[in-house]
Amino acid sequence: MTEPLLSVRRLAKDYVSRGAKLAVLRDISFDIGKGEVVGLVGESGSGKTTIGRSVLRLVEPTAGSVRFDGTEITGLRAGALRRMRPRMQYIFQDPFASLSPRMTIGEILTEGLKIQRIGHRLDRLDRARAALEQVDLPAEAINRYAHEFSGGQRQRIGIARALALGPEFLVADEPVSALDVSIQAQVINLLRGLQQRLGLTMLFISHDLAVVEYVCDRVIVLYLGRIMEIAAGADLYARPSHPYTRALLSAIPSPDPDARRDRQILKGDIPSPANPPSGCVFRTRCPHALDACAATVPELREVVPGQFKACIRDDLD
């Protein structure tokens, strides 16, 4: 891996709901190298979006360290964090809710530039037009409103809003899940092309493992707020090490109707973060769980070079 642009260590996040503490994230540690695309996958409720928002401090972590390009950002005061914002941008999941209906596209794209006091009005509009062109939308779109665009076009506008500030790092939070299937591939190819052309570093959050395989260099597998496995994309898809990863991959549809896949169906639902299982959080659904799994929280350890898993069993490799 190249030099880390983002380093996360022992990140934790708690919420309180109706008097109960929800341990949404626990002991999250990973690095993302400069120019690398890292996928973050897992079922709904696993904490993927919370990680994405925590590393940018859109929500405040309960504990842990997040370093961006060598700077510890969890302790930054408001002014210093605001000055860091142009380098780290977020692409939201819902292209309909993330764009104000009362603002023109030009106002949406220049709002961040204005807050950061970058350029004058005409300079900002020029940057907005350039950002629109980067996402294959006409420059004259700056005078229109969000409701005049389709879902796919709105997501392109959301991407342009992030690009207008000239970021180095993007968190793409389920960027195509709200779009029609026919449009998803276009937006994914756009993001992939922008990442390669601009040398962007990216945390790509998705529940679609087929998309992650296409886009990402490495993959982090998350379950109930804990990391189960980290590996290079090619290694993870060819030789998944953790039972949870194997179950997720077995559910990917095959384009070959004659191909046989050993489908592994997980029993039950993901537990509540208000009452997580003791020991390994996956043990209540794991077909290979031992009695010891209830007493031991497995450490994330390297099982082969570059591949890490949180499981006490070695006989499953």
From TrEMBL:
Q: Which residues form the signal peptide?
A: none
Membrane-topology annotation of the record: Peripheral membrane protein
Domain ABC transporter intervals: 6-249
What Gene3D superfamilies does this protein's entry cite? P-loop containing nucleotide triphosphate hydrolases
Mind telling me which SUPFAM superfamilies this protein's record contains? P-loop containing nucleoside triphosphate hydrolases
Q: Which PROSITE patterns match?
A: ABC_TRANSPORTER_1 (PS00211), ABC_TRANSPORTER_2 (PS50893)
Per the record, the GO terms for biological process are: peptide transport; transmembrane transport
State any GO CC term.
plasma membrane
Write out the annotated subcellular location: Cell inner membrane
State the UniProt keywords alphabetically. Answer: ATP-binding, Nucleotide-binding, Transport
**Matching InterPro entries, A to Z?**
AAA+_ATPase, ABC_transp_ATP-bind, ABC_transporter-like_ATP-bd, ABC_transporter-like_CS, Oligopep_ABC_C, P-loop_NTPase
| GO function terms (MF aspect) | ATP binding; ATP hydrolysis activity
Main location class: membrane
Query: Which family would the database say this protein is a member of?
Result: Belongs to the ABC transporter superfamily.
Q: Which NCBIfam families match?
A: oligo_HPY (TIGR01727)
The name this protein goes by in its record: Peptide/nickel transport system ATP-binding protein
Source lineage: Bacteria, Pseudomonadati, Pseudomonadota, Alphaproteobacteria, Hyphomicrobiales
